[in-house]
Amino acid sequence: MAAHGALLQRYGAATRAEVMRYLAAGAPSPFLDDMLADYPSRGGKMLRPAICLANASVFGGEAPAAAVRAAAAIEMLHNALLIHDDVQDGSELRRGKPTLHALHGVPLAINAGDALLFAAFGPLIDAVSPLGSHVIRQVMDVTTMMARQTAEGQALELGWRDRNVTGLTEADYMRMALKKTAWMGMIWPAQLGLIIGSRGRLDPEMVVRFGYFLGLAFQIEDDLRNLSEDPGYGKEQNGDLAEAKRTLMLIHVRAACDEAECARLDAFLGLSREERSAQDVLWLARLMHERGSIEHARKVAAAMAGAAEHEFAAVYGALPPSEERAFLGSLVRWVFDRA
After folding, report:
1. d(C-alpha 123, C-alpha 302), whole Å
2. Which domains does the chain have, with CATH numbers?
3. Which of 71, 79, 245, 312 would bridge with 49, disulfide CB 3.0–4.6 Å?
4. pTM for this prediction
5. What integer pLDDT is reported at residue 3 of this predicted model?
6. DSSP-derived secondary structure for 229-273
């Protein structure tokens, strides 16, 4: 995984420099500009920009300057959505530090998220403008699709909690994770890289299935890490349980509960986050272990990873060997091995 890390670091540094260049443009504005740079400056995995740049390289022979600008747009949009997600979830930590709304209040945080989202269009437009109307149209089409899918996925997750929907199935979870995680996190970056690298000659639909299965494996593993003693990604342990997120483990454990446990679980889910006690959160975490929900989720994540490896071979297998192709192939294993 050393080569993987080196490429991720190299792509991440190029993307971060481009993000900061765009954020530094224009006159400084109080109560805004420092907040725009906060989440991007905290680091992060830079997975999404790297997927874009690697795809631009394998489908175009190199990652052109246009792809670096597109990668910057991806990272800016991702951080904008993180700001909004943290407000919607009531999260306390992001990348090991207090969330933006915890530091500055909800109104300023939402405004900063809005501004960062709109700012992302700067590098995206700069990336595609020189490439011609056909490429511009393709990029706008996949970006519009990603925006709709992401909003639908977030609406499902929030709606299930707000309306206390309990009778969910694993298929419901997969649909939500496809829209909320896989589309913005894996599918769209791959599509942007493919379109820019091939100058619009290839069909962006060809990377959807790989991104879908990779995104599902990533999301399930993320949900599992939230329950571990060291989540390793800067968020509070068991935060998903305190927020009553409808994870694969929660859906599984409810189906495996006896009548009394199910009644207690449904009562817990019906409370506000502030009303959910630490004792009940720990009870639910133990119940997930006892009913095999953790192990079940691990098996499903492994199955999704296997499907992603199959799709990788179908899409990338015939391409010439390269560091970038090896990186994309290693992502399936990295989902589970990331620090």
Report:
1. 36
2. 2-337 (1.10.600.10)
3. 71
4. 0.93
5. 55
6. S--SSSS-TTHHHHTT---HHHHHHHHH--HHHHHHHHHHHTS-G
